Amino acid sequence: MATLDDFPITRKWPPQDAGVIQLYSFPTPNGVKAAIALEELGLPYEPHLVKLGDEFVKSPEFVSLNPNGKIPAMIDPDGPGGQPIELWESHTILTYLAEKTGRLGGEGAARWEVQKWLAWQVAGLGPMFGQLGHFVKLADEQVPYAQERYIAEARRLLGVIDGQLQGRDWVAGDFSIADIAIAPWLNALEFYEVKDDVGWRDFPNAAAYVERFYDRPAARKGSRIPDPDG
């Protein structure tokens, strides 16, 4: 029977409790999704801070778990059939946790509503907002065409989510992993300092949604896990 000792990543980030979920992450918009979900679901887990430098995410130990060299990644020692399972990509982790617990993933037709919005975040919101933040705040040189392109696309995506939230608290009906995927990326506009650029005030449903999301104790706690100063 496989144990956590069989995973090379545990040599660089050794577990203190090998019986609980091991989370390898950093508190980026993608990184906090897993911690928020684990907090919402009340699953025991142990977070390991994986800093974003190549010496960490491209290390042989981390790449042995996630060959793509990106956070978050996770090992559940009690996976299907009681065997450990390794997981990476935030939407896969969210879907796995929802199915493991039977919560936050929707049932019947509602499951596919959740999956649609989860896919929308993965395919559009995250990549486009990431490029927006890069070219407006983080890039070493100003590229006006890129800035204009991603500001315009961010506004379009904000219009989509703002419309979906008209008259509802959560994007797919009940609170779900779709919200855990989407809200941290909307919140990233604050870090990227682009709220004025995208006209955040024009999207009141989205703004109220972010506040509502972070009013949840699990969201507030999970958004600071792992501790980046740890």
UniProtKB/TrEMBL annotation:
Keywords: Oxidoreductase. GO terms for molecular function: oxidoreductase activity. Residues 18-105 form the GST N-terminal domain. CDD domains: GST_C_Ure2p_like (cd03178), GST_N_Ure2p_like (cd03048). Its EC number is 1.8.4.-. InterPro entries: Glutathione-S-Trfase_C-like, Glutathione-S-Trfase_C_sf, Glutathione_S-Trfase, Glutathione_S-Trfase_N, GST_C, Thioredoxin-like_sf. It is an enzyme of class 1 (oxidoreductase). This is Disulfide-bond oxidoreductase YfcG. It comes from Palleronia marisminoris.
